[in-house]
């Protein structure tokens, strides 16, 4: 028996699948339940077959339909839809679509088409922030998996992204992944055989790159790496940068050194302004790329690099690919506040104190001077943030003070400037202030304690105008229908703000949910709290930058308020990118910069960094990272503020009487980066690929597997017939509610158990991807849709009538002559160049009148026929029996039609392979005979019987 044949073993019918091991037989249930695929050892099966006949693998044929029970046209259509939705190995060239649980946009297929032109795949995907690079990479992974080109894959990412990658792999691409990091290794070790490492045993892995890069852990992985490696946040693995970056680069370089390994690099910021860093990233794709000057590259080399590099802005995508707006419109807004007299006094005293200790520390040795400087800046950030953060920072524990005379300086810049690559520490830098305090005179320490008392007094009253203004801003956003995230710098500030919002807005919004998430919570706790946020009620999230990377929040939030301005504009974009990204269903998102108009330090950050970042974004349509030396520039400006009196404070506006030369140098460098980015994105926007090319392949796959509209029609019809009708939402299009209580007593268990376990009385779903907030996406691979389709299909095949769904039916319709529809499932073997075989299948509807065959479109139209007259039961049985009897005599003509279809499929596969620059010699598609006759529907003219 060959792959694609039907066999019987253990009293069940199976389909033989291609197997890489000649001694192993792969079997899939005839009903198409791919999750029940089993492997039999050929020799063991033969031995058992001598004593246990049920274990003997025997050739079989698909059971033909019985004339009864009889159904209707709607039942025949439902059977056809159920049969299509149970397919996983579709006959179209893009095989991944049968396995995924989302509906990607057209532009997201571009990297896949690029990948199919390569062997091995070596891609740098650098599309804009929020475009969906994860989906683009996993589409490639799933396609390579379905084609049998990979059998193991690993995603390398920062540790805080591991769980999100695992969820994306499982929920959207139906790949069960394990997370490998320090906290999971022991458990994974317990569930593997002693003869294999965890990297060899688990086929799909998500690995913390900072765990695996170490000398202790890397060797076991590098001895037998997976076939495909995806590196997320690849800009963190460049050769130029911190020692951590260098370690990552060295590790990924070892993986890339194998020229046969598939490698996909993902980053929204491939170029940080340092050419050598960018070249080291390109060199991971091909060593020669790392030697090329991207700014002066000849056309031939440019063409070669463009085969491996895609970089598109949102404007590119909407203009060139979608022809419509597919991302939310970001509405920026500035809100300001004026410090109250009491808060102004605290700020001025803190500012004077910081300026004084910096000035008086100029004559200290370098290490002690630097400790003072960073201590002063961190204190100022805390005071600017909130009275709560100021108080927490100023509560110096004198018993813990240490003399730093003999200790090396600790780098505390992360408390002041947000790092681009790793999560910023969100606790108040008490330890830093304590170490700075050890170098202070007693009089200076008394001033610190006095500042602490002033901060404590601010917590008692209504003297915090910043907090009051925030309440007004959030109230306005809620009234506009937005769901905001309030970003804070420190834990104490976040908790202070969350409590203030809950108290101040409780009367106006009795059911308001205010969530507060900080770095004090573990990743699991953060995700659980976000999952609890009720989308049907007003809700606000107050968070520190522990959430600015790694957790997508677009499904529940539509606005951002920067309560504390970041001192790194890269972090500003990361925060806003949590809501302004692919999957956001709101047409607009609002982003609010909130700052003190009489605060000179806020003014420095805005004038030097944030305004320039916004100007570039508005001009270019994309985000350009701040040049690497921005930290030193901002430090120089702040230093100038502390060491000079060259600024003027005004109650209404902040202006500067000087522009340090460093600022002009920074802005000029940044502008050059923006121009380079514009040119690069023009070169690598992949405009040579056309939307029509992608759309043609999608339509071919939809014809085999069914598009989202087909899924919706099937679910609505099937649930209605089973007594579980979906209720349309009155406010949102294509949003439906499935009751979870009061279920019909005769609802099949297979369907009942597929409903989610929930305390709610209904389940909100949608067939549109991305889905509206609060709704689950019901795609063809969703467990509920799969269970529903499988139940309908199996019930019909087993001869059970379920709400009119049977394998045979007849009706009288408005037709000039009788017609018969034959519902077929056709299995194919795709013989590829090189000898590899792929199994594929599809469901076809063949229509025939007395003397000719109908084209496919006409046959499918007849599936929608409505009864136009009564048809006696005896006449239905006779008509169906006659159709079944004539089936064998039609086989030669059916064979011709199936061969023609196989030729069409072969040409489609060749078309894709030609686009891949791959050979097509020897490629053919073989239909397995005979096709499975799933059902028969006879339509008789109504005029001959009188109208109903």
UniProtKB/TrEMBL annotation:
SMART domains: DEXDc, HELICc
Residue ranges constituting the Helicase ATP-binding domain according to the UniProt record: 114-288
Domain of life: Bacteria
InterPro entries, per database record: DEXDc_RapA, Helicase_ATP-bd, Helicase_C-like, P-loop_NTPase, SNF2-like_sf, SNF2/RAD54-like_C, SNF2_N
Nucleotide-binding among keywords: yes
Alphabetized UniProt keyword annotations: ATP-binding, Helicase, Hydrolase, Nucleotide-binding
A Pfam family hit: SNF2-rel_dom
Domain Helicase C-terminal: 469-638
Coiled coil: none
A GO term for molecular function: helicase activity
Record PANTHER family: DNA ANNEALING HELICASE AND ENDONUCLEASE ZRANB3 FAMILY MEMBER, SWI_SNF-RELATED MATRIX-ASSOCIATED ACTIN-DEPENDENT REGULATOR OF CHROMATIN SUBFAMILY A-LIKE PROTEIN 1
Protein name per its UniProtKB record: DEAD/DEAH box helicase
Species of provenance: Litorilinea aerophila
Classification of source organism: Bacteria, Bacillati, Chloroflexota, Caldilineae, Caldilineales
């Amino acid at each position: 028996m060959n792959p694609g044949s039907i066999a019987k073993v253990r009293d069940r019918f199976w389909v033989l699948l291609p197997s890489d091991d000649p001694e192993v037989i792969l079997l899939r249930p005839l009903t198409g339940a791919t999750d029940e695929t089993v492997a039999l050892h050929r020799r063991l099966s033969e031995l058992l077959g001598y004593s246990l006949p049920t274990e003997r693998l025997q050739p079989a044929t698909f059971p033909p339909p019985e004339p009864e029970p009889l159904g209707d046209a709607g039942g025949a259509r439902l059977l056809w839809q159920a049969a299509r939705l149970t397919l996983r190995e579709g006959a179209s060239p893009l095989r991944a679509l049968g396995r995924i649980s989302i509906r990607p946009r057209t532009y997201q297929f571009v990297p896949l088409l690029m990948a199919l032109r390569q062997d091995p795949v070596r891609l740098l995907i650098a599309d804009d922030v929020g475009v969906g690079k994860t989906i683009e990479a996993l589409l490639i992974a799933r396609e390579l998996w379905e084609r049998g080109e990979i059998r193991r894959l690993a995603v390398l990412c920062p540790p805080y992204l591991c769980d999100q990658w695992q969820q994306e792999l499982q929920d959207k691409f139906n790949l069960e992944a394990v997370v490998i990091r320090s906290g999971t290794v022991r458990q994974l070790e317990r569930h593997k055989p002693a003869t294999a490492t965890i990297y060899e045993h688990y086929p799909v892995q998500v690995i913390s790159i900072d765990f695996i890069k170490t000398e202790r852990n890397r060797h076991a992985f590098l001895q037998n790496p997976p076939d495909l490696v995806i590196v997320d946040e690849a800009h963190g693995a460049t050769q130029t940068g911190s020692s951590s970056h260098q370690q990552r680069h060295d590790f990924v370089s070892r993986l890339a050194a194998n020229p046969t390994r598939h490698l996909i690099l993902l980053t929204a910021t491939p170029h940080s302004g340092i050419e050598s860093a960018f070249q080291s990233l390109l060199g991971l794709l091909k060593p020669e790329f790392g030697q090329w000057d991207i700014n002066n590259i000849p056309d031939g080399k440019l063409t070669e690099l463009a085969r491996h590099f895609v970089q598109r802005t949102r404007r590119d995508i909407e203009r060139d690919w979608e022809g419509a707006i597919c991302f939310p419109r970001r509405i920026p807004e500035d809100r300001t506040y004026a410090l109250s007299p009491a808060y102004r006094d605290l700020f001025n005293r803190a500012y004077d104190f910081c300026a004084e200790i910096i000035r008086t520390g100029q004559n200290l040795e370098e290490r002690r001077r630097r400790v003072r400087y960073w201590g002063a800046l961190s204190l100022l950030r805390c005071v600017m943030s909130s009275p709560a953060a100021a108080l927490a920072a100023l509560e110096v524990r004198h018993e813990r003070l240490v003399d730093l005379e003999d200790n090396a300086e600790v780098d505390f810049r992360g408390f002041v400037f947000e790092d681009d690559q790793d999560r910023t520490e969100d606790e108040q830098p008490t330890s830093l202030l304590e170490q700075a305090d050890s170098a202070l005179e007693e009089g200076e320490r008394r001033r610190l304690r006095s500042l602490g008392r002033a901060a404590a007094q601010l917590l008692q009253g209504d003297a915090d105008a910043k907090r009051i203004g925030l309440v007004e801003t959030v109230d306005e956003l809620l009234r506009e229908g937005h769901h905001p995230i309030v970003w804070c710098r420190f834990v104490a500030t976040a908790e202070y703000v969350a409590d203030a919002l809950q108290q101040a807005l409780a009367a106006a919004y009795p059911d308001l949910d205010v969530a507060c998430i900080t770095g004090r919570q573990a990743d699991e706790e953060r995700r659980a709290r976000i999952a609890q946020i009720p989308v049907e009620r007003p809700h606000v999230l107050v968070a520190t930058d522990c959430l600015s990377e790694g957790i997508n929040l677009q499904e529940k939030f539509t606005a951002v308020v920067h309560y504390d301005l970041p001192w790194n504009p890269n972090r500003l974009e990361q925060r806003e990118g949590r809501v302004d990204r692919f999957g956001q269903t709101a047409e607009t998102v609002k982003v609010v910069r909130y700052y003190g108009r009489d605060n000179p330090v806020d003014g420095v950050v805005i004038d030097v960094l944030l305004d320039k970042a916004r100007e570039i974004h508005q001009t270019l349509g994309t985000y350009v990272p701040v040049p690497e030396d921005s930290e030193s520039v901002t430090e120089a400006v702040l230093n100038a503020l502390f060491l000079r009196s060259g600024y003027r404070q005004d109650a209404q506006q902040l202006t500067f009487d000087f522009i340090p030369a460093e600022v002009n140098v920074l802005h000029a460098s940044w502008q050059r980066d923006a121009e380079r980015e514009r040119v690069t994105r023009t070169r690598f926007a992949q405009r040579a690929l056309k939307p029509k090319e992608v759309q043609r392949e999608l339509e071919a796959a939809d014809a085999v597997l069914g598009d989202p509209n087909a899924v919706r029609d099937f679910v609505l019809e099937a649930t209605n017939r089973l007594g579980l009708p979906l209720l349309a939402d009155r406010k949102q299009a294509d949003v439906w509610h499935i009751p979870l209580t009061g279920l019909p007593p005769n609802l099949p268990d297979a369907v009942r158990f597929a409903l989610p376990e929930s305390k709610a009385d209904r389940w909100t779903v949608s067939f549109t991807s991305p889905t509206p907030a609060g709704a689950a996406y019901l795609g063809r691979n969703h467990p509920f849709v799969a269970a529903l389709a499988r139940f309908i299909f199996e019930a019909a095949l087993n001869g059970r009538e379920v709400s009119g769904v049977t394998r045979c039916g007849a009706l009288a319709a408005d037709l000039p002559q009788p017609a018969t529809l034959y519902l077929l499932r056709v299995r194919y073997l795709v013989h590829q160049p090189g000898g590899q075989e792929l199994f594929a299948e599809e469901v076809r509807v063949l229509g025939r009148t007395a003397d000719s065959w109908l084209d496919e479109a006409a046959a499918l139209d007849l599936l929608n026929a409505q009864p136009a007259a009564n048809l006696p039961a005896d006449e239905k049985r006779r008509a169906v029996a006659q159709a079944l009897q004539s089936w064998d005599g039609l086989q030669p003509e059916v064979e011709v039609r199936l061969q023609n279809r196989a030729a069409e499929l072969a040409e489609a596969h060749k078309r894709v392979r030609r686009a891949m620059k791959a050979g097509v010699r020897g490629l053919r598609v073989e239909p397995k005979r005979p096709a499975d006759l799933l059902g028969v529907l006879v339509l008789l003219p109504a005029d001959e019987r009188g109208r109903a």
